[in-house]
Structure formats: C-alpha cells, structure tokens
Amino acid sequence: MLNIKDLREYFRRPGNSGFWMDHVKRYSTSRRKAPIYWLLQSSKKNYALWLYYQRLDKDTLFKALTKYVEPKIRLEDSRLEQWRAQLVVAGSEGRQVKQLERQLEHQESLVIELYEFRDKLRRAADLNLEPDLNDGVVLNIAPLRELVPWGDAKKYWDELLARRYEWSSISKQLRSKGVI
User: Fold this and answer.
1) Cβ of 180: how many Cβ atoms within 10 Å?
2) Distance CA 101, CA 87 (A)
3) I need a surface site. Which of 20, 136, 169, 179 has the fewest CB within 10 A?
C-alpha cells in the first residue's frame, strides 16, 4: 500500500532521490532536456510549487503569486503573530517558554523564506514573458533560475544574456524589454 507521507516526501525531496531529478532524467534523452513538470522551491526547500510546462501562459507566474504564494504568506504571518501572542502570555521562564521561543524562531525563518520566494517569483513574473513552446523547455525555464533546483536553468539564462539564442522568442522579448 502506498504511504501518502512517503509520496509527499518523494515529491518534496530535492537531489537524486526525489521526483524532480527522476523526472528530469526521464525527460532528458541525448542532449534534449525537457522536463514538463517544473519544481519551484524556496531557498531552504520548505515551500514549493509545481508548474506544468504545457499549460504555461503569460499570466501563470502572476496567478501562482496571487493564488498560492501570497495566501500562504498571510497564513504563516498569522501563525507567527499567534506564536508571539502565546509567548507574551507564557512569560519569560520555563520549559514551555523555551519551546515557544524555538517554535517562534522556526516560524520567523519560514516567513522570511516565503517572502524571499515571493520576491524571486515576482522578479520572474515582472519580466512579463510569453512562454513559447517552440523555444524549448530550457529557454522557457531559464528566467526561473533562482527558484528551480536545476543548474541548467542558470546556465541557459547566462547564455540568453550572452545573446547565444537570438533566434528565440524569449531572447527577443528580453531584448525588447532591455534586459539584454
């Protein structure tokens, strides 16, 4: 029987043992690299979103921000305020206070991580690029290099900036916006 906790961990886990790398390997043959599910992860991997490449459009990143990331930030900010209120009520000494302080510290770290994730996603969204499936996965995923646990995204972003793919729709859009 399939264990849901294990399945969640499999999708969440970075590196060679998780879904993302298994998926990249499966959809990369010869020199072609074309994963159709994209993992966007926060820096400490406590938050992630999956995007489906075939359904990307100009508004996908904005939709991700408004439907998922910003509500998650509001939820975690609210939890942070609850931890702070509990700490005030608990006083200043004792085992419970130390435990609350640890939980508060963990929650503060999560909220900071979520804000960083939001800012990186907003930078990519603000490029306002229209995905072009004819450009291929590697060029379309490149603007998300800060969020994708895949070194090729950064490599192709650098190559776009170096004007290696001037023929591509993504490159033309970046040039028209003055990015390159």
Assistant:
1) 14
2) 7
3) 179
- Name the residue among 133, 18, 132 with its Cα closest to residue 26: 18
Contacts of 49 (CB under 8 A, 6+ apart): 39, 40, 64, 68, 69
Instruction: Count other C-beta atoms under 10 Å from residue 5's C-beta.
Output: 7
Is residue 56 a contact partner of residue 140, using CB atoms and an 8 Å limit?
A: yes
Quote the pTM value: 0.83
d(CA 175, CA 111): 35
Q: How far apart are CA 37 and CA 112, in angstroms?
A: 26
Q: What is the mean pLDDT of residues 85-99?
A: 81
104 touches 82 (CB < 8 A): no
Closest CA to 150 of 19, 46, 47: 19
Residue 37 has what pLDDT?
84
